[in-house]
Amino acid sequence: MCGIAGILNIALDRNPGESVIRKMIAFINHRGPDGHGFYVKDGIGLGHARLSIIDIEGGQQPIHNEDKSIWVVFNGEIFNYIELQESLKKQGHKFYTHSDTEVIVHLYEQYGDEFVQHLNGQFSIALWDTGKKRLLLVRDRIGINPLFYTEKNKQLIFASEVKSIISALGHSPRLNSSALDQLMTFWSPVSPNTVFEGIYEVSPGQMIVVENGSLTKKNYWDWKFAEPDNYRTGTEQVLAEELHDLLLDATQIRLRSDVPVGAYLSGGLDSSVITSLIHNHGGVPLRTFSIGFDEEGLDESVYQRTMIDHLNADHSKIQCSNQDIADNLISTIWHTESPILRTAPVPMSLLSGLVRKEGYKVVLTGEGADEVLGGYDIFKEGKIRQFWARNPDSTFRPALLKKLYPYLDISKKQGAVYLKSFFGAELERPELPYFAHIPRWTTTAKCKEFFSDDLKSTLNDDVMDTISQSWPQQISKWAPFNKSQYIEAKSLMSGYLLCSQGDRMLMSNSVEGRFPFLDHRVMEFANSIHPKLKMKALNEKYLLKQAMKQYLPPSIVQRYKQPYRAPDIPSFFGTNPPEYIKELMNDSSINNAGYFDAGKVSRLVKKIERGRAIGYKDNMAFIGILTTQVWHDLFITNYQKNFS
Amino acid sequence: MSVKDKVRGYILENYLFSDDPSALADGDSFLDKGIIDSTGILEVIYFLEDEFGVSVEDDEMVPENLDSVDNIVAFIGKKQG
Asked: What span, in angstroms and rounded, lies between the C-alpha atoms of A512 and A14?
């Protein structure tokens, strides 16, 4: 990956200052420390920070076409660039580099805006057509690579990270309170919002065209599921083989690199699949990396060891302690540029640090398998709730939830009543697209009880209306399981896992992640099959297991799925609590920021200090409030210090 | 301090994070108002056992005993009586 930044003077009457573009790039140097490049002409300035992975010698950006009429800066990888290069050469295009970037300008020449449909990859692109005075900002199908923009004083300012945009704004940013309202319900703002007022993301699967002074948005790709009477046909065996072959190719093209490629190995099914494919077919030595936790319930070292032995991998591991979480939270928020509700991104930054230290700058991971092939507990929860909704008076049906949440089994009678109060929400409306998500969103939204009256007074929109309006009309025709997949992929995955916990944590140490499960061919195949092949009864990722079981140890295929989590509240209230807790969570700091009710926050902190905060609600509220305070401190209170 | 005051104070402090008595009526259902969920009830039971020296049995963990300040006060009265 890399970092890109730029400014377009929409009237094209003057050039942006190159020094401003250089400053923007300096703020995202961590994304591309191997070289910087600039283009300033005809009213536009483009900048690029390079992480050199393909065509080390010749791949410097910006890159242009034969007659220098089309220029591009690009963050990401085009994995099918070899095939595209061959095809474009046959059509007469002349290449001056061996880089994947150059196919973009020639594809645009050849196919116009449809060029993006030819790309298999992860990308954010800024392409400038000098003839038509036309700027394209394009982001990959699902938002692996970030791209943000804002408009100010007839300028369009865009960059891979918000901090780069802030450096060009000339004033301190402000909180978008509606986006915080959304984040504290869905875990991320609803695209295109960010928590910064007036700063937006280019949505996943979107192209923004700026031409003749106007800005147009085009959505070129979205998750689209087969309707119930139109699922892909074929026996389980045939479909499993098809999935295997697609995954193999998705993995192999993601090994294309002029530098060594490693892989994450968590001990779960998904990374085990990817590492097995590399081991069996990659033609490269298998180098793996993992993270371990002191807390037994979070640690997966036993399964990691099983896979390391199975694959004879050259493995490195980093151990993450509660102290590590506390020590690295502030730098993590500098990179997420957003509050978070759990500390899980922090260890991911430590892990990418290990990768970089070991001399690697590219890793393949199993990210996306749960969304694409149906692995999450929330899908099981939705399935059980759908089953229950058919007979709401049943006591047997909700009892299946205890399979997912054993702690619910307090007593038969109590269990039934309290289960119904929580998991039985909207049981009479199973057709709701977000039916499976109601319990999670209801719990998360409890964080908002800590909002200050001032912040509440600024909230005019119902978050449910906002998110519902972002879904396509055809969602109502999809099976309940697919509705849940869509919502999970669009909210949690694109809005949080791929950015706060993904790109940002990898890039904080100049490491590129590649995700074979998120190859659009794999996604489109998975979206076409019957949901029961994704989850058979309550057996998650069923077809993936069928496709890969012969290559994996049975203990990995059959293991209970353990969600990735990191220590939360205990990290901040141990023997050596970080100073910033007192500084940022005291009444004065809370009141100065103005987002939360100081009295309520103080009571929450006291409850935690008494050791009485045991629920998810308190945990999420504390981490959400703390990281919002850290965010405020970094980007607003210390704006002068951090951006001057 | 009466049992009712202690229970009210506990719920206000730990679930509503508030010192405003008007935020909770004695008859308010914790479930209906979304104040306490299935994990939160564990905390309430810890509190009752620690504070009032009672032991809450499995079959007593029902809304009739635990779902409002009034219900808890009556339940504690019954257990202590």
From this structure: 36
Q: pTM for this structure?
A: 0.93
DSSP-assigned states of every residue in A55-71: STTT--SSEE-TTS-EE
Q: What is the pLDDT of residues A200-249, one digit of tens each?
A: 999 999 999 999 999 999 999 999 999 999 999 999 999 999 999 999 99
Q: How far is CA A254 from CA A257, A362, A373, A387, A401, in A?
A: 8, 10, 19, 40, 38
A95 Cβ partners below 8 Å, 6+ apart? A85, A88, A89, A102, A106
Domains in chain A and their CATH numbers? 3-219 (3.60.20.10), 236-373+490-557 (3.40.50.620), 569-643 (no CATH)
ipTM: 0.72
In chain B, domain spans: 3-80
What fold characterizes domain B3-80?
Answer: 1.10.1200
Structure tokens, A191: 């695209």
pLDDT per residue as tens digits for the range A488-505: 999 999 999 999 999 999
State the Cα angle at A533 between A542 and A276, rounded to 5°.
40
Q: Is the pLDDT of residue A558 over 60?
A: yes
Asked if B43 and A615 come within 8 Å (Cβ–Cβ), the reply is yes
Q: For the sheet with A3-9, list strands across it.
A: A36-41, A44-49, A3-9, A155-159, A148-152, A200-201
Cα of A123 vs its chain's centroid, Å: 13
CA count, 13 A, side-chain hemisphere, A598: 12
Which residues on chain A are in Cβ contact (under 8 Å) with B18?
A: 599-600, 603
Question: How far apart are the C-alpha atoms of A67 and A78, rounded to whole Å?
Answer: 23
Catalytic residues of A: 2
Give the pLDDT confidence score for residue A415 in this predicted structure.
Answer: 57
Which residues of B are less than 8 Å from A597 in CB distance?
17
Amino acid found at A57: E
Per-residue pLDDT of B11-63, as tens digits, reads 998 889 988 889 999 999 988 888 886 667 777 888 898 899 998 887 787 88
Interchain contact, A597 vs B17, CB within 8 Å:
yes
Q: Is the pLDDT confidence value at A413 over 60?
A: no
CB proximity under 8 Å: B 19-78 to A: 19, 31, 34, 37-43, 46, 58-59, 61-63
